Amino acid sequence: MLSVSDLTVGYQHDAPVLHGVTLDMGSQGVHAIVGANGAGKTTLLHTLAGHLRPTAGWVLCDGHDVTGWRPPDAARAGIALAPQGRRLWPSLTVRDHLTVTRPPRHRAHGRAWNVSDLLDLFPALAARLRHHAHQLSGGEQQMLTIARALRLAPRLLLADEPTEGLAPAIAAHLQTVLADLPRHGVPVCVALPHARSAAALASSLHVLTGGHLNGPIDSHGTGADDALRHHLALTSAARPTRTPPVEHNR
Ligand SMILES: Nc1ncnc2c1ncn2[C@@H]1O[C@H](COP(=O)(O)OP(=O)(O)OP(=O)(O)O)[C@@H](O)[C@H]1O
């Protein structure tokens, strides 16, 4: 549903962070953007969500040119961002976060998620409904960040480093939830620093290095040249144990 072509984006006009990035995300699966700190993952996701305006290239949504769109335009098209750093509202409770967030009117809807659906997805939040965001653990805050984004009934969820700083067991739980979202009708684009966790989660991987995007590579490493495969350390141990829903929407 969302694609970018030859995209150049930066914060200063003469110093682009992303160079000629081309990426096609279909309406299924989990797409991972893998890159080291500072590679430009957030820059790419923020451009998709309308927070940054490219200096060159195109953004297409359902085949329409939406280059330079603003966040409300992206939200109306069904793009929801679960941002790095979570950006929860400290004075609001968990229940408040889930009830004040609603899909914008006059927009393209994905699956509707009511509060009980979200508590089924994240049972740990059920006991925390009256707690304020700042009283939650890091893992609970991340669950709430994803749950809040799902309340927008997205057609595509952008998740920026959702497992950053979390204990391995909590990170694994969140990865499982994200990997299952396409089965609930929500494709995902997730930015992650490590290829191993991305390979366990995603149906296709792209790698950002030096502002250039490589890939797609499927979860078996197909599509990677030898140098990139070595870089990713996509060994058999890194492969998912489930059968991945590899898609061919390009
Ligand atoms: N608001 C900004 N103003 C100027 N430069 C920025 C800004 N935000 C990010 N950058 C620069 O853009 C580059 C890419 O940053 P970005 O946050 O997109 O990377 P990232 O891959 O998400 O990194 P991380 O994993 O550390 O979050 C970095 O060199 C960063 O310093």
TrEMBL record:
Residues 2-235 form the ABC transporter domain. The keyword Magnesium does not apply. The keyword Nucleotide-binding applies. GO terms for molecular function: ATP binding; ATP hydrolysis activity; branched-chain amino acid transmembrane transporter activity. One of its GO terms (biological process) is L-amino acid transport. Keywords: Amino-acid transport, ATP-binding, Nucleotide-binding, Transport. SMART domains: AAA. It comes from the Bacteria. InterPro entries: AAA+_ATPase, ABC_transporter-like_ATP-bd, ABC_transporter-like_CS, BCAA_Transport_ATP-bd_LivF, P-loop_NTPase. Belongs to the ABC transporter superfamily. PANTHER family: HIGH-AFFINITY BRANCHED-CHAIN AMINO ACID TRANSPORT ATP-BINDING PROTEIN LIVF. This is Amino acid/amide ABC transporter ATP-binding protein 2, HAAT family. It comes from Micromonospora halophytica.
